[in-house]
Amino acid sequence: MRRALPPLNALRAFEAAARLGSFKAAADELGVTHGAVSQQVRGLEGWLRASLFERHNRRVVLTPAARAYLAEVGPALDRIAAATAQYGHEAGAVLRVNAPASFSLRWLVPRLARFRARHPAIRVRLETSNQPLEALADPYDVVIRGGPDTFYGTTVRVFLSERRLPVCSPGLLDRAPLRSPADLRRHTLLHSASLPRLWDDWLSEAGVAGLEPEAALTLDHFYLTLQAALDGVGLAMGPTALIADDLARGRLVAPFEGPRLPARSYCTYVREGRALAGPIAAFLTWIEEEGAA
């Protein structure tokens, strides 16, 4: 029989806010924003079709029905936590990592076998997302994003730097050589929808601002742009960290020495209070070694 269960994150937000009497205190405990807690509670109220709190400036008061609901939900969450801890102890450590999709596909996933070989008892659960750090509701052990940025209650460590430069397949250069940036007018420039100004910035730095290419193609994901470059469709602005393997193996080439546009570094973000030992420490040490290499 299918259970009619509300979202777990909404229950956690409700239980914390009800127990602490404050959305802000609940946000601090859960490691999310005040707005995220408020949104989760509103979602739960919509799911239940009932009000759970009376809002009074900086504090919230449970409705009578919500007090009865809390009496059932609180112990249930405690039992879930206890069962999870027991299972996790028996089944081995699970490390929850959240990283951008392009980075995961092009850099992290091809290297994870080496982490597994070094730490066979640690099971990595990787989820991809481009959401800002403060918008993530799930309790990930390690979040990978650009930076370094400062977030209250979070430890940040840089592990990989990069720059951006034009790249293409060797076959494309065979068909239409590139002797100078001005020759790009005979080529197709590949754009990523998430970074629409990269080519404009590079052309300006290269001294050919306003150059009109033969064609332009925009793709919605960055890894699709790089795949199109690998397939000889056109030239992409490649981030050095994500194309290093392709350059080393000759699948992509960089037709120009420069310029190279600056880019944000890749960083690990870990919530303070999570022990920087065991699986988390092992992963941070490994990924920093990979980044240095």
UniProtKB/TrEMBL annotation:
Domain HTH lysR-type residue range list: 6-63
GO molecular function: DNA-binding transcription factor activity; sequence-specific DNA binding
GO terms for biological process, alphabetical: DNA-templated transcription
Keyword Phosphoprotein: no
Keywords: DNA-binding, Transcription, Transcription regulation
Family: Belongs to the LysR transcriptional regulatory family.
Official protein name in the record: Glycine cleavage system transcriptional activator
Organism of origin: Methylobacterium frigidaeris
